[in-house]
Design a protein that fits this description.
The structure holds two protein chains of two kinds. By secondary structure, chain A is of the alpha/beta class. Chain A has a single domain, classed as NAD(P)-binding Rossmann-like Domain (Rossmann fold, 3-Layer(aba) Sandwich), CATH 3.40.50. Chain A is built from ten helices and eight strands. Chain A has an eight-stranded mixed β-sheet, with helices on both faces. In chain A, helix 4 crosses helix 10. Chain B is of the alpha+beta class. Chain B has a single domain, classed as TusA-like domain (Translation Initiation Factor IF3), CATH 3.30.110. Chain B contains two helices and four strands; from the N terminus they run E-H-E-H-E-E. In chain B, strands 1-2-4-3 form a four-stranded mixed β-sheet, covered by helices on one side. Chains A and B meet through helix 2 and helix 3 of A and helix 1 and helix 2 of B.
Chain lengths: 265, 84
């Protein structure tokens, strides 16, 4: 194992962990993670993955930084107001750790580009803010058999699950189809406690590192729900649905589609 | 003088290195030897003469000997027991 002196220092608390060591740190350095969204969730996920030394982090976002984002989107700042969020996050992550190659993609993810974008990555992180994108990411990951760490937040509650296609259930096993537009309010209408994406994003980053290291038990087939007001964590089991339209025995969804767009956060 | 019959397969000199890098360097050196082989570590950071043996046992390896060889230096012999 050849680490530069600077890397020995930077990653020393990882290297001495029994579950990590030099070998584990090398796995982290060699990992390629694709993140969708540089918003509330994407900021802390990317921040911690960059700190951990994940070698390649791609982050896709089409929005620009606004003042209303800064209450929770910790990779952005007043200095990057008006800048594309993927670019803003890249600057922050690379300032934290120059070992990391951050690829900023200034596009909106859709049914036409997603497969090509994620195909060379080991793990996908969903930090999107709307149901059509969430289902699109799920379907693409099932089709390409990519592990997906999914997070969602609203008001004072957040949830995390890890989808390992072929091994556990997918998002559609839980809810076959997205709710109709307007039924579930967005953060823009309903609000979100600024620290909540920090909690959920940190949990997502933890899941990503566990997958990279091959250690511990991922949240496979489980939805971890955090209720900030009650200070409660609870886990709900998600059974695999043999009739799931995408990962079931006879899938009816065989190609990706874009559903109606929602307003974004 | 060092009096022992333990044969080291690899030697690591970390004199001048302080915690936690004593442990970082020792762990990396143990990763690089084969199971069953012995690493000899020369160090002068007093705390490490106790913390490294403890950590190595925790990783599942054996500590064959911890020896104070002069007023400032220690030698620790670690046998790699598991692929960690």
């Amino acid at each position: 194992m050849d680490f530069a002196e600077e890397q020995l220092k930077r990653y020393s608390r990882h290297i001495i962990l029994p579950e990590v060591g030099g070998k584990g740190q090398k796995k982290i350095s060699g990992a390629k993670v694709f993140m969708i969204g540089a918003g509330g969730l994407g900021c802390p996920v990317g921040y911690y993955l960059a700190a951990a030394g994940v070698g390649t982090i791609a982050i896709i976002d089409n929005d620009t930084v606004e003042l209303s984002n800064l209450q929770r989107q910790i990779a952005h700042s007043v200095k990057t107001l008006g800048v594309n969020k993927a670019d803003s996050a890249k600057q922050t992550f690379e300032a934290l750790n120059p070992d990391v190659n951050v690829i900023a993609i200034k596009e909106r993810i859709n049914s036409r580009n997603i497969l090509d974008l994620i195909k060379d990555y080991d793990i996908v992180v969903d930090g999107s803010d709307n149901f059509p994108t969430r289902y699109l990411i799920n379907d693409a990951c099932v089709m390409l058999k990519k592990p997906l760490v999914s997070g969602a937040i609203l008001r004072f509650e957040g949830q995390v699950t890890t989808i390992v296609p072929g091994e556990g259930p997918c998002y559609r096993c839980l809810f076959e189809y997205p709710p109709p537009p307007g039924l579930v309010p967005s953060c823009q209408e309903a609000g979100v406690l600024g620290v909540l994406p920090g909690v959920i994003g940190a949990l997502q980053a933890t899941e990503v590192l566990k997958l990279i290291l091959g250690k511990g038990a991922p949240l496979k087939g489980q939805l971890l729900i955090y209720d900030a007001l009650g200070a409660n964590f609870r886990k709900v089991k998600i059974p695999k649905n043999p009739a799931c339209p995408i990962c079931g025995e006879n899938p009816t969804i065989t190609e990706l589609t874009d559903s109606e767009e929602y307003c974004s956060i | 003088m060092i009096m022992n019959d333990i044969k080291a397969d690899k030697k690591l000199d970390i004199k001048g290195v302080v915690c936690p890098y004593t442990l970082v360097k020792t762990r990396l050196a143990v990763e690089d030897i084969e199971v069953g082989q012995v690493l000899e570590v020369l160090l002068d950071y007093p705390e490490a003469s106790e913390s490294i043996p403890r950590a190595m046992l925790n990783y599942g390896h054996s500590v064959l000997k911890v020896e104070k060889i002069n007023p400032t230096d220690w030698i620790i012999y670690i046998k790699k027991e598991v692929e960690d």
